[in-house]
């Protein structure tokens, strides 16, 4: 039995299998409940959420540094900036939420985000010098070319002025 306990702990410490999956394997004839008890007795296995790593390459990191250096002396210009973000919820599966058995003697696992195909729901929000944006509760008109401009004008920036022919954009 000691050898089987060691096998269970060793397999789980790799972080690539769940207790349920391990219990189904033929080479380890131990019940899932027994495996749970074995894991509880170890003081170095934890059930953790995997950390997510953005898909940043060296060029992306350099672009971020360049952006900061360029904008570090801004004063009044920040009054005309909106920070926005969006969150996509995948309706057809996990949204990057993955757990694993972590061996605290090793480094934490990080997984790269991958793009999913299928139904999804997108939510958006933003804030700036004037506060947060109130998002419209209904639908925007069908002929709306740039919803961002409409949302800004209807909120706390009614005098938002974009140079002729330009639209809001991100760097």
Automatic annotation (TrEMBL):
The lineage of its organism: Eukaryota, Metazoa, Ecdysozoa, Arthropoda, Chelicerata. This is Transposable element Tc3 transposase. The gene is tc3a_153. Gene3D superfamilies: Ribonuclease H-like superfamily/Ribonuclease H (3.30.420.10). It comes from the Eukaryota. InterPro entries: RNaseH_sf. One of its GO terms (molecular function) is nucleic acid binding.
């Amino acid at each position: 039995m000691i050898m089987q306990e060691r096998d269970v702990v060793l397999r789980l410490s790799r972080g690539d299998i769940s207790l349920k999956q391990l219990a189904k394997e033929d080479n380890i004839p131990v019940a899932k409940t027994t495996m749970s008890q074995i894991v509880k007795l170890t003081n170095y296995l934890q059930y953790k959420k995997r950390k997510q790593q953005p898909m940043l390459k060296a060029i992306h990191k350099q672009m971020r540094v360049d952006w900061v250096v360029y904008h570090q002396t801004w004063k009044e210009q920040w009054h005309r900036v909106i920070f926005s973000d969006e969150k996509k919820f995948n309706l057809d599966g996990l949204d990057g939420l993955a757990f694993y058995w972590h061996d605290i003697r090793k480094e934490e696992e990080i997984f790269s985000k991958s793009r999913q195909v299928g139904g999804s729901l997108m939510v958006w929000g933003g804030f700036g010098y004037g506060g947060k944006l109130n998002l419209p509760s209904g639908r925007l008109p069908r002929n709306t070319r740039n919803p961002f401009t409409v949302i800004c004008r209807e909120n706390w920036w009614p005098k938002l002025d974009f140079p002729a022919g330009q639209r809001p954009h991100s760097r």
